[in-house]
């Protein structure tokens, strides 16, 4: 087991006599990755083993350790069916072998998640566990639809109810008379198919047919949909509208507040799925920006950044240092720190940065770049260096980068040294995301290496629009026989976002 992990994880856990391992029942929230708790993210990052269910946010596993064992143990839909006994046996086995096991469930682990049953099995086996509550779908989906489940004067109680997918099997399981008489909001967790029998039974048991009711599907996700009606009309309306699982149904006067309190404004990329091929470590800012615009993001990292051990020369020998990426900046400073130096090592030299991301990374380290070209490619930097005096240049960059910059500077008579601080290596794509990538509306490429490595294991879908950050990446795409549908005019992340939004608007966006 990861020692640091277990010590930190143990913080709040109830240690049992069962030996080394620990199981954390972690709620992953309703779907929006922003609704994962801080503790959930912390445990996901520490876990040796993650056993996850179907309705967890796709992004929840992004922060897992590269060597963690990730296992789908969902019950239905999509993936394979894993029987409950098998899941419990696996959990016990891994915990007994000393692992930190995260049992990751959608919403809250103790709300219709069988978390209680699994915790009883652990207690019986004497294995320690921790519970990390999550935001449950019934409250979160309602909230994202502008429905407060309690409201002064309208509802001072709320009941969370689940019913079997097969209405016939509900006989006896639920007390319909009690539910009909319940003095407050009813929130049902279940598929849309159950709605006709559910609403009919509530009306038959005396719940007013005219009471407001709302169905919220895919709550908190970019594709969330809300439908408002009455107890009498909602089932047929939901069927007509093609509302899909997962969905919750809110029955009570508060449902009508959706009309006044709906607050989510559809972003310009609402309904669009965008696949991001950047290295996982850098994808998050792009992914977050895309989500903020309403897109559903698929992280499909095609590359991984690996630091190289090339010797970093003494910096005072140079009068110009060129940095070509934020990665390069980070790794340069790591190297400087490793030999006891800091930003002052750059004090006597001109510092050139290709692109605002590189300049930002420098600023975060206390260095303001002297030269940032208007065009964020090597050619732009060469132009920007016209009239600048230098004779000894250090270029810190990725292994295998183009030679345009060193060649041009040598032509101008400078002595040029190159240090390769890192290389990008292929990150095999998770086979589970391949179908989603093929169906994406947009597929984004931020460098030639993402193009080459992505195409080593996947192909874009036929209807997917290919987005490139700039001409160099576009050329690589064309070399591989792909059409570039969208090319950013500003060759950075903001430029890429602008280009997608403009393309979407031009495509009859918002439809
Ligand atoms: N433990 C989970 C519930 C699991 S039961 C929680 O606390 O949320 C699964 C049911 O939850 C689904 O059938 C659906 O009714 C509801 N659900 C889960 N995610 C949802 C979402 N994003 N929007 C609406 N309902 C959701």
Structure commentary:
Mean pLDDT is about 90; it is low at about 1-10 and about 10-20. Helices cover about 30% and strands about 20% of the residues. The chain has 18 helices and 20 strands. Strand 6 (about 160), helix 6 and strand 7 (about 185-190) form a beta-alpha-beta unit. The protein has about 500 residues and is α/β, with parallel strands linked by helices. It has a 5-stranded parallel sheet with strand order 3-2-4-1-5, with helices on both faces. A 5-stranded mixed sheet has the order 6-7-10-8-9, with helices on both faces. A 5-stranded parallel sheet has the order 12-11-18-19-20, with helices on both faces. The longest helix is centred in the last third of the chain and has 14 residues, at about 495-505. It has helices at about 5-10, 40-45, 85-95, 115-125, 135-145, 175-180, 195-205, 235-240, 260, 280-290, 325-340, 355-365, 380-385, 405-410, 435-440, 450-455, 470-480, 495-505; strands at about 20-25, 50, 70, 100-105, 130, 160, 185-190, 210-215, 225-230, 245-250, 275, 295-300, 305, 320-325, 350-355, 390-400, 415-425, 440-445, 465-470, 485. Helix 11 runs parallel beside helix 12, helix 13 (about 380-385) packs parallel to helix 14 and helix 16 (about 450-455) packs parallel to helix 17. Bound molecules: S-adenosyl-L-homocysteine (SAH). S-adenosyl-L-homocysteine binds near residues 219, 247 and 248.
């Amino acid at each position: 087991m990861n020692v640091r992990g277990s010590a930190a994880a143990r913080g709040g856990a109830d240690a049992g006599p069962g030996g080394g391992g620990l199981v954390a029942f972690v709620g992953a929230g309703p779907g929006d990755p922003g609704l994962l708790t801080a503790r959930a993210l912390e445990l996901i990052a520490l876990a040796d083993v993650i056993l996850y269910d179907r309705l967890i946010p796709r992004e929840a596993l992004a922060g897992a350790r590269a060597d963690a064992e990730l296992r789908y143990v969902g019950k239905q839909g999509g993936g394979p069916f894993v029987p409950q006994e098998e899941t419990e046996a696996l959990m016990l086995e891994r915990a007994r072998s000393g692992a930190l096991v995260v049992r990751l469930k959608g919403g809250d682990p103790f709300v219709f998640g069988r978390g209680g049953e699994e915790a009883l099995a652990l207690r019986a086996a004497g294995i320690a566990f921790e519970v990390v509550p999550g935001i449950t779908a019934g409250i979160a989906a309602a909230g994202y639809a502008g429905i407060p489940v309690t409201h002064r004067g309208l509802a001072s109680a709320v009941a969370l109810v689940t019913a079997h997918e097969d209405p016939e099997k509900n006989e006896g399981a639920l007390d319909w008379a009690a539910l009909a008489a319940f003095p407050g909001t009813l929130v049902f967790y279940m598929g849309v198919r159950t709605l006709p029998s559910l609403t009919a039974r509530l009306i038959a048991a005396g719940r007013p047919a005219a009471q407001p009711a709302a169905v919220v599907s895919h709550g908190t996700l970019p594709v969330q949909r809300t439908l408002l009606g009455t107890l009498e009309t909602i089932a047929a309306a939901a069927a007509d509208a093609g509302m899909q699982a997962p969905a919750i149904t809110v029955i009570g006067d508060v449902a009508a507040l959706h009309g006044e309190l709906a607050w989510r404004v559809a972003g310009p990329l609402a309904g669009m799925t965008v696949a991001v091929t950047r290295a996982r470590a850098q994808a998050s800012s792009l992914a977050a920006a895309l989500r903020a615009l309403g897109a559903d993001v698929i992280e499909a990292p095609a590359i991984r950044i690996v630091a190289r051990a090339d010797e970093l020369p003494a910096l005072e020998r140079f009068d110009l240092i060129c940095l070509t990426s934020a990665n390069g900046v980070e790794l340069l400073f790591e190297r400087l720190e490793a030999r006891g130096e800091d930003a002052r090592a750059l004090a006597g030299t001109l510092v050139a940065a290709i692109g605002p991301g590189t300049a930002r990374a420098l600023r975060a380290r206390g260095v303001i770049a002297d030269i940032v070209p208007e065009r964020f490619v090597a050619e732009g930097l060469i132009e920007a260096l016209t009239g600048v005096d230098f004779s000894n240049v250090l270029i810190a960059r990725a292994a295998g980068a183009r030679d345009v910059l060193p060649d041009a500077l040598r032509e101008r008579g400078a002595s040029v040294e190159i240090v390769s601080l890192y290389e990008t290596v292929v990150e095999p794509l998770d086979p589970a995301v391949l179908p989603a990538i093929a169906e994406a509306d947009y597929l984004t490429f931020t460098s030639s290496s993402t193009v080459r490595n992505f195409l080593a294991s996947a192909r874009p879908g036929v209807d997917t629009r290919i987005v490139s950050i700039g001409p160099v990446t576009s050329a690589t795409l064309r070399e591989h026989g792909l059409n570039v549908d969208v090319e950013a005019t500003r060759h950075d992340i903001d430029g890429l976002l602008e280009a997608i939004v403009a393309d979407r608007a031009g495509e009859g966006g918002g439809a």
